[in-house]
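Re: that chain you flagged

S.,

Sorry for the slow reply, it's been a week of failed gels. I finally had a moment to sit down with the sequence you sent. For the record, here it is as I used it:
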Amino acid sequence: MGKKKTYRGELVDEIRGLGQSQGLNHVFTTFLEISATCISAEIDPSNAEEREKRYEEMTSAMDPKTLNCYAHMLALLALAIHEHEEDPCDILGSIYHELRLNNEWNGQYFTPDNVCRMMAQLVNPVDERPEAEDPIMINEPTCGSGTMVIGAVWAMKQKDFDFRHKSFFVAQDIDIRCVWMAYIQLSLYGIPAVVIHGDTLAMKEWSRWYTPLASVPFIKRECAVNSTEKGAATSG
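Prediction finished late last night. Pasting the structure tokens below so you have them in one place:
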């Protein structure tokens, strides 16, 4: 009896299956854009109108069977990420390489999970400010598929650090596919972040993608500030 296939394995099969008729690169890129746009249209008021319009443009050109395939892919990715909730890893980045879609000629190789985890443990920002009221801010200027951010969250979880309320990540990349990969994964892992499509060196920016929990680390601080201001006004 064969070993049961993982959700990640099923996702790869689904991408390859549709890729036979539409091309692997096209299918993977479309899956990323439609998933990222769908998530952003639902949870980001500042970009909702633009993202919803783009989502409708994409889906209106698809037949129901193809659209259902993409919906199934996103469901499989969500299930795969749920499986790794306690041990977060870069699922889309590994699939990107497995399908050989990375740009080898431009040196596009994503850092493996184990290396990212080791680097996060060495930097160890949690121990530097354990009692800080403001969230720990971490910037990843060349985020790729988000693997360094995911590695940092993995390290935080090893110390039982409440990353959802006490950290915020700014991730940037010049490749829009990387932006979408990072955004989708950070959203599904529940990581507070903004993923920026831009050129870090030239200081150019084209779009911002806020994860569903992007504002969470700042809510407690805002409440504390408001409470202090009210107290000062009352005593005054």
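What I noticed first: The chain is about 60% helix and 10% strand.

Talk soon,
D.
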